[in-house]
Amino acid sequence: MFEAIAFYLFAFLTALMFFITVTTSQALHALTALAAGMIFISAFFFILGADFLGAVQIVVYSGAVMALYAFGMMFFDTTRDVKEKQGNKYIIAGLSIVSAILVVLIFAAPMVTDNITALYPMTEGVGNTQDVGMVLFTKYLVPFEVAAVMLLVAMVAGIVLAGKKMDASLTEMSEAEIEEINTRELS
Amino acid sequence: MEIYLYVALFAPLVGSLFAALFGASPRTKIAGIVPSLLLGVSFIASSVLLKHIVSGGDIVHVEMMTWMATGDLYIPFGFVVDQISVTMMMVVTLVSTIVHVYAIGYMDHDKGFNRFFSYLSAFVFSMMILVMSDNFAGLFIGWEGVGLCSWLLIGFWYHKESATWAANEAFIMNRIADLGMLIGIFLVFWNTGTLQYDGAFAAMQNLDQETLTWIGIFLFIGAMGKSAQFPLHTWLADAMEGPTPVSALIHAATMVTAGVYLVVRSNELYALIPHVGLFIASLGAFVAIFAASMALVNRDIKRVIAYSTLSQLGYMFAAAGLGAYWVALFHLMAHAFFKALLFLGAGNVMHAMNSELDPFKMGGLGKTMKVSMIMMTLASVALAGIFPLAGFFSKDLILEVAFVDHHFIIYTVLLLTAGLTAFYSFRIIALIFHGEDRHTALGFHPHEAYKFMLVAMSPLLILAIIAGFTMKMPYFEMVTQLLPATEYHVHSATTYWIMTIGTQLFVILAIFFAYRKYMSKDIRVPDGTSRMENNFFYKLLINQYYIPHFYEEYLVKPYRELSTIFFKQIDQKIVDATVDGIANVLLATGESTRVVQSGNLSTMLKWMVAGMVALLSLAVVFGLAVKYLDEIQAILSGLGV
Amino acid sequence: MMEIGLNHYLVLSTILFAIGLIGVMKRRNLLLLFFATEILLNSVNIAFAAISHYYGDLTGQMFAFFVIAIAASEVAVGLGLLIVWHKRHSNIDLDTMSTMKG
Q1: B600 contacts in C (CB within 8 Å)?
Q2: pTM for this one?
């Protein structure tokens, strides 16, 4: 009962927030709605017993990603209204709705579920976080490390792309050029 | 003994590859000397093998490696040195060594010096494979190898239109004949299940006459092509476009005799089908006189000698066809010596006369080129068959064979040819070396060839003189261990002496007639006005019986027209049009759909979503189809599908 | 109706995905386009977590975890690129990016 109420509530809220995100003409509204939607999604994770995932969702999305977007928006001119495309709105809505209906249709069809057995079953009497940790650092250790390297690469890439003068290489410059840069900085 | 076999076989290959290393670099003497030395090594190894065989040693038979082994087909790279192949090996290595040494001098000023030796040694290697192989497949490889090298060497001066034309003509004619040969080899395998000589010939004893006849005919077609027998003879005279050492080695002494070798090698087959043998003999006799008649009037030294080669090949086939295989092989050997000598002598003359080939423009060269004159004269005497030179023992033997076997028509034809041979041989000798000096007026300043070239030729000269009376009996004893040992003796001594002396007198008469006619002082360079030149027979002969003309007019031209029609109607309008059509459709499709690539990310995303919807719809449709499969099948069967 | 099953979550995930698709197709401001892609990723995460829960298998959660990691790196690199583009052209309008026009 409680679960049902929670599900419908958060489902409604999430859909609403995301709808605002894609329709509003104010970039700031969109950002705020997106952040709210993200937090509401973490609620589903808690309902589903995936505590760790829910925590990660809040930390990464609402914390890191949203903060990044917020900083990113400072670079752009977001005060004016976002101009929308003058395309055919019926095509867009039609395509989305048709694809959604098709996917639902596929879900509604009786699925072959008998022979599905859990590859990494959840352990009874153990918290979700501990459980996730067990699997993540045994079976998924290599993908985990690869993901870590990928994040590092992404970080370096972000710094290089966005940072000032990061397109110039100090190692390839001559002493005189570096000196010139330094004097310009100081003045 | 095996090591000698491998040395004899592979030394020429090493020489060829060595010379090929210098293929792109400028002329270096070493590219000629090393292959010549290696051929000398090959010759020595062959001599050791000959000694081994003559002294009654076993036949050397090696199987180097498996070449093909699939199902019932088993073909090894096997080589055999028996009495037949050792004879051929000796001829090939000896003549080619001499020709190599000679060519170092002859090709001295040629830009393609290195290339020439690479080709020439490759030819020797192919020829060795041809004669040493112990199966038909290996023989065929060698057969094609010599064909290829012959093509390369005829067209050696590829910048000359006529040389490339002649090379292609030789190659194409040989391909026609090789098809016959290939069919023959297939038939052999089809009917005997093996390509090894010993196995195949043993199995042939049990085959019916008709099959054997077909095998014999098809194999002989191959031999006809390589040995330039009528009607595939036209390429040999045109092959004289190649450098003269090539003519001496390939188109006189070795390659063209491969056909004779094939018939001799297949003697067990032809012994079973005497009617095919008789056909071969008749064709041989016909070619002998046919070629000799063309040689009578030709005004090109090398072509005259080429026709003489053709004529002598006819003799060999006549002997082989009549079952006198050892006689054919003996004449092959003797002929190789004096014909190579004759060609090399002609090469000296050509060299001296700046590649001028018309004997009517020479005359009196004997004063400056004494050694060449003596050599060519002796070679011609040997060719004419005067006692005691080589030709007497081999050629007169063929006449005797024909006589003893009561083939009097063949005998008469061959006897007549002997006279013609003597006449045309001495016709060119007289025109070149004797009579009035006609060349100085034309601005030629002849000189004798290099000393070492003459020295290189001298073994051939010695062999041309002594090969007959010293070698006949040992040779007979050796080779008849493998070949049918038929001794041909005329029954009554009187008939024999009348025949021999009569032939000798006839030939000598022909020689004197030639000298008398062509040493006279009023020989001029023919200009097409004299009465003789407008004679019908002269025209017929100088135009080679209009056979090349016939081929050109009735085979080449219709074929070319047919090809043009096919090119224009079928290739261009159907094949090309189809290909172009496909390309045009693709081009048009691309042209009309390039608007899709607007470069606008938003549009692309829309297309992506549309594609996703399409795929999802497909998934739904297939899912439904699988679910309601039975009903759908019922409906379809109701519709009668 | 009151018993929440797997299908409920999957339908919710589909609806959110459809909303994300609308955003992807209709936005022409690149920053807002990024927002829409975040919605797509999140909707898929819900499906993963739900399947993981209803089949008692942790694999779904693992996938969701890696999806979050990828989304984070995408944002980092994507925003960097956006900033570079904005520095050069002082706009982040999709319609101006048409150098790939065929």
Answers
A1: 94-95, 97-98, 101
A2: 0.67
